[in-house]
Amino acid sequence: MKVGYLGPAATYTNEAALKQFGSEAELIPMRTIADVFLAVGNSQLDYGVVPVENTLEGGVTYTLDMFGRADLDEIMICAEIMLPIRSHLMVAQNGPKSLNEIKVVLSHPQALGQARGWLQNNLPNVEIVEETSTSRSAELVAGRTDAAAIAPILCAEAYNLKVLASDLQDADFNQTRFFVIYKHRPRWPMPVLNNSDEGVPITAIMISIKDKVGTLHAVTDIFMRYDINLVRIESRPSKQKAWDYVFFIDLQGQPGQPHVANALHELASETTWAKVLGWWNRSSKV
Ligand SMILES: O=C(O)C(=O)C[C@]1(C(=O)O)C=C[C@@H](O)C=C1
């Protein structure tokens, strides 16, 4: 079984993939989140692990936008992984000895955002450089004497770096949610990964609604009438025309339940486009 994740080795996504698949799978680092989607889409990978949402920084837009691509229409979600996120400031062994010797800080934009307060308080004048992942920034600072990376602790060992400061995240409830994605082929049963019957059933949908007064109200009204709890609603530009949006909705329940099936059926009258992205059981454990 081949499972792709945002690489190089020792990203948070790598940790999430290990948590879900253990050593049973061949874990393959990919350069970008888009590359994970594309390799799942052309069946080079059986599964991909991608970050989707963080408790401090919100939605991972790179991931959300890939679900809107027409050429990746068959990609679905079959599980989610929650990971506590702790970040550290690390430098090369012969690099800066203290914070005032650091001129540049490299990291993934999500990790930089989660440490915004710490950076403002401790390194207000450094240049900030965004990289494709935290471990890519760790790999890059290994050869520099003026730079530091914000990265997970696994990177210190993987890239032989020393840690100058720990726990940079702006709150200790910092967590990221990841999706396991696969290419939907007509097969039954659907893959079920670590999804015990004990969790709360969640279904993710993506919709585009009619451009008229009250449509969003009508959509939420349908879910209210069927007693369906909405656990997340997030909008992104549709990228089809200006000021046009798609909505990502996570709801409690699964399409196999009659009340959810009926609600999704009724939803068609208010939407111009709709897709079920997948369903899984949410564990209460992090
Ligand atoms: O760069 C990494 O280590 C990643 O796995 C990406 C990512 C993200 O995109 O949200 C994953 C978890 C953290 O929130 C920070 C970065």
From TrEMBL:
Chain positions of site Essential for prephenate dehydratase activity: T176
EC main group: lyase
Residue ranges occupied by any Prephenate dehydratase domain in the UniProt entry: 2-183
Protein name per its UniProtKB record: Prephenate dehydratase
Keyword Amino-acid biosynthesis (UniProt): yes
Domain ACT: 204-279
Listed InterPro entries: ACT-like_dom_sf, ACT_dom, Chor_mutase/pphenate_deHydtase, Preph_deHydtase
Taxonomic classification: Bacteria, Bacillati, Chloroflexota, Chloroflexia, Candidatus Chloroheliales
A GO molecular-function annotation: prephenate dehydratase activity
Pathway recorded for this protein: Amino-acid biosynthesis; L-phenylalanine biosynthesis; phenylpyruvate from prephenate: step 1/1
Species the sequence originates in: Candidatus Chlorohelix allophototropha
EC number, UniProt record: 4.2.1.51
Gene Ontology, cellular component aspect: cytoplasm
Keywords for this protein: Amino-acid biosynthesis, Aromatic amino acid biosynthesis, Lyase, Phenylalanine biosynthesis
Amino-acid biosynthesis as UniProt keyword: yes
